[in-house]
From TrEMBL:
The keyword Hydrolase applies. This is SpoIIE family protein phosphatase. It holds the Pfam family HATPase_c_2. The lineage of its organism: Bacteria, Bacillati, Actinomycetota, Actinomycetes, Kitasatosporales. CDD domains: HATPase_RsbW-like (cd16936), PAS (cd00130). Keywords: Hydrolase. It comes from Streptomyces roseoverticillatus.
């Protein structure tokens, strides 16, 4: 047997008493184990260590019967110096960290992970021992160090420091039977209180006792008389009706026949030192109040109290359960409007299912239907559904009390037991007293958490707004909406869009934090009818995904076992158990409303047995409002872009015309995002048999306004040329049309010409260059020359006198026509210019028309690091060499 201990024994101490018990692996065994250890130590006369022993036993037995799922063997042994408690379970293969290991044992506030930490903090010694069938955790609590043979002792004091008494100290001895009735009354009792023995014999002591404590908030007299030992102050009403304050020491005993009775020793309050036992001293460096008089609930919470809300709530429910020997406990916090309570911590209950579940504050009429008043349900089986939170949990009795701060309901604390009739109004008052002590700390921690959440929410919303504002692409907006919610707000997300009020919602985007679940989730949602596009703000629950997932998974399981209904089609798709678990929790739908119209729905989901917190839903609602506006903006932008691009495409030739005997190539680049056509344009079209018109122009400016003049110019050129007008007449009439546009008119540079391929392999061109960069002619020998003279631009003067020039392209010659986006390409003070373009063209001898255009474009792009800010068109024509 291996052993790792906090301290190694060199010699086993002598065991003077032993008690053992075995507890089954059920939740109620924890309370039974606590009661066993408490009763054992009380019977041995060691009340000083009961609190620590019960807390440690509770944690270790919880680890065994709840988390390990095995029976727990509890052994208590008393030695001359202390008490050793051993808790063994039957799951030895579980790893328990060594004390010497640097690895963290576990979170101090995690239920089931605190046992060893508490041992290290509270026990004198502790350790872990293994056998092939058991794992045993033990701890030892040393008894207070007192001189041999004494129960308690104090230091020697000077005479003036000794307590005062009457010359004759009287100690009343009163004995009670099991019912609390007086059976013996000595002479000192008669002298102190004025009653003879025959006057009080057979009467209950409660007829004479004046108990000063508020019933239920501390130990009552009836409860004190049932304890094995009790000390404290109260009053006895004498024969003259006056109350004599006394200090009492009660001892519970039994006679030879086993009948219990209580012996009470009473002295005057001012003579309490005669009977008073020395109280347990606090740790020298703790500065804490006396543990025998401090409230155990407060002591546990403050040793030390967790900084975070969840840790404080979890420790509160565990301490409340221990205080009332319950099997389960839970704590709910009220919403801001005090209409609902939200489960925030529980022990002994299926916490994964209950966490963040909500119940109404006013669940019904009468006192027991309101969470604002203490309530005791002796048997939940008599009134099924009286406490919906405990349905199907096996709990039969429950006591609940409100948490209030300055009269305002802030929460509710409940303790439940599997046995009926466990709690009465006294327990309710005790629990209420504890709740009052912790309510302010809980509210302070809750407000701190809310402040952190609000700060985090504001940061989240600012970042979300920046991301959503950074794109006008619809698909990217949908993806951002989902990625911002998963996993920050939800486990999975689906976005539905509504094209128009008459359309059905369409599933547009699906995301799950586990990428392997996305396809299954998308398939499942695709088979469901989408949620109704209701414009009502706020989140509403949508049960269809969870119900469909579980039903489909069940059909799949039955089918795999051969138990499927014969009416169920064997090829019907089913949902995997993993997908069903992934979407089996709460699902909520938030409308996406923009400009008073529902444009979609944001659907958020949780895995099985999980629920949304109200703070998360409020944050999701804020996000949905921002996302709706961003989605609508992207929709409007997409529609406008589609319309703009459709109109712009109509301004360009549908395809590049093939001219027999001449190679033609065009490269076109429009400046500005989303623009396909700008102020530059080109055209190549047939005029009549053997004759083709070509044009390349530049309207002042860029964008849609310039594109409007582009459309006017291109269509006017085609119409006029086909009417038989020559080049100068075509441009003069186009000039008049531009001027007719008035304030919308823009000046235009234009190179227009007619191309006639010849039978000898050459081509004759008649061109007019109206304010446009001059066309360049590249001969076969590499020389470059301008192919036209400059003439006035269009859209400025009414009366133009234009003329056309004739150019003959011999086989192998190239004609290059560009807009000023090419020649005016800049980087700082440098500009490509006409000379730079001429030099570039001299290197293009022997290249095809397409290769020449590509080389010019590449040179323009490389001329400067910044992207081009002007529209650009390149038109090249080449007469092939004769074969």
């Amino acid at each position: 047997m291996g052993e790792q201990t906090a301290e190694t024994y060199t010699r086993r101490p002598v065991i003077t008493a032993r008690a053992a018990a075995t507890f089954e692996p059920v939740g109620r065994s924890v309370a039974s184990a606590r009661a066993f250890v408490r009763d054992t130590l009380q019977g041995w006369g060691h009340p000083d260590i009961i609190d620590d022993a019960v807390v440690l036993t509770s944690e270790l037995v919880t680890n065994a019967v709840v988390h390990a799922g095995t029976a727990a063997d509890v052994l208590c042994m008393r030695t001359g110096t202390g008490v050793r408690v051993e808790v063994a379970d039957r799951y030895p293969e579980r790893e328990v960290p060594l004390q010497s290991s640097a690895r963290r044992i576990g979170g101090v506030d995690r239920e089931g992970g605190r046992g060893l930490l508490l041992c290290a903090a509270l026990a004198t010694r502790w350790g872990v021992e293994y056998t092939p069938t058991h794992k045993q955790v033990w701890f030892q609590l040393d008894l207070p160090d007192r001189p041999a043979g004494t129960r308690s002792a104090g230091p020697a004091l000077p005479t003036e420091a000794l307590p005062l008494t009457d010359p004759r100290v009287r100690v009343a001895v009163v004995q009670l039977d099991r019912t609390g009735s007086i059976t013996a009354w000595n002479d000192d009792a008669a002298a102190l209180f004025g009653f003879a023995a025959d006057q009080v014999t057979g009467k209950p002591l409660t007829d004479f006792a004046a108990w000063p404590h508020t019933p239920g908030t501390s130990t009552g007299i009836a409860e004190a008389l049932r304890l094995s030992r009790w000390e404290g102050s109260y009053g006895i009403r004498g024969a003259d009706g006056r109350i004599t304050p006394v200090y009492a020491s009660h001892l519970r005993v039994r006679d030879n026949e086993g009948a219990p009775s209580t012996v009470c020793l009473l002295v005057r309050e001012e003579e309490r030192a005669v009977l008073q036992s020395l109280q347990r001293s606090p740790a020298p460096d703790s500065g804490a109040a006396d543990r025998t008089t401090a409230d155990p609930f407060e002591v546990f919470i403050g040793s030390p109290a967790p900084d975070d809300l969840d840790g404080l709530l979890q420790r509160t429910v565990e301490r409340a359960r221990d205080m009332l020997d319950g099997d389960a406990a839970y704590l709910l916090l009220a919403t801001d409007d005090e209409t609902e309570l939200e489960v925030r911590a529980s022990t002994g209950l299926p916490s994964a299912r209950q966490r963040f579940a909500r119940v109404p504050v006013e669940a019904g009429t009468g006192r027991y239907g309101s969470a604002r008043m203490p309530a005791v349900h002796e048997d939940l089986a008599v009134i099924p559904g009286a406490v919906p939170l405990l349905a199907d949990t096996g709990m039969r009795s429950v006591v609940t009390v409100p948490l209030k701060v300055e009269g305002r309901l802030t929460g509710s604390l409940g303790v439940a037991a599997e046995a009926p009739g466990r709690y009465s109004n006294e327990e309710a008052l005790r629990l209420q007293f504890a709740a009052d002590r912790i309510a302010l700390a809980v509210e302070r921690a809750r407000l701190n958490e809310l402040e952190r959440l609000r700060r985090g929410s504001l940061s989240f919303l600012v970042e979300a707004s920046d991301l959503l504002a950074g794109t006008l692409d619809r698909d990217q907006t949908l993806a951002l909406m989902a990625q911002m919610t998963v996993p920050t707000l939800a486990t999975w997300c689906a976005v539905y869009t509504v094209a128009d009020p008459a359309s059905e919602p369409e599933l547009s985007y699906v995301l799950h934090e586990d990428e392997d679940r996305i396809d299954g989730l998308k398939t499942l949602l695709g088979k469901l009818a989408p949620p109704d596009p209701v414009p009502t703000p706020g989140a509403r629950v949508w049960a269809a995904p969870s119900e469909a997932a579980h039903a489909s998974a069940l059909r799949g399981s039955l089918r795999s076992l051969g138990l499927a209904d014969s009416t169920d089609h064997p090829a019907a798709p089913t949902t995997s158990l993993a997908t069903a678990a992934a979407v089996g929790g709460e699902t909520v739908v938030l409308p996406l409303v923009a400009r008073n119209r529902v444009i979609g729905m944001l659907t958020l989901g949780k895995p099985t047995d999980d629920h949304f917190r109200q703070e998360i839903l409020e944050l999701a609602e804020d996000l949905s409002r921002r996302a709706a506006l961003a989605l609508d903006n992207s929709r409007l932008y997409s529609e406008r872009t589609a319309i703009s691009q459709s109109l712009q495409r109509s301004l360009l030739p549908p395809e590049l015309l093939h001219v027999p005997g001449v190679e033609v190539d065009v490269i076109y680049r429009a400046a500005g995002e989303g623009n396909e056509v700008g102020g530059d344009f080109y055209d190549l079209f047939p005029i009549r048999d053997g004759a083709y018109g070509f044009a390349i122009g530049d309207v002042c400016g860029t964008g849609p306004e310039a594109a409007a003049v582009t459309g006017l110019a291109r269509h006017a050129l085609r119409l006029l040329a086909r009417e038989g007008y020559g080049g100068p007449a075509v441009l003069e009439r186009l000039n008049a049309a531009i001027l007719d546009e008035g304030a919308r008119s823009r000046f235009l540079t234009l190179l227009y010409g007619e191309l006639r391929p010849q039978e000898d392999g050459s081509a004759i061109l008649k061109v007019v260059c109206a304010g446009h960069p001059l066309p360049l002619r590249l001969r076969q020998d590499g020389t470059v020359e301008a192919a036209a003279d400059p003439q006035p631009l269009l859209g400025v003067m009414e009366d133009l006198e234009l003329y056309e020039q004739t150019v003959t392209l011999e086989p192998g010659d190239v004609l290059l026509c560009v807009t000023d986006g090419v020649t005016e390409r800049r980087e700082g003070t440098r500009m490509l210019g006409d000379d730079g373009l001429t030099d570039l063209l001299t290197t293009c001898t022997g290249l095809t028309a397409g290769a020449v255009a590509a080389r010019v474009l590449r040179a323009v792009e490389r001329f400067a690091a910044e992207p081009a800010s002007d529209d650009m068109a390149i038109l090249t024509m080449r007469v092939p060499e004769l074969q």
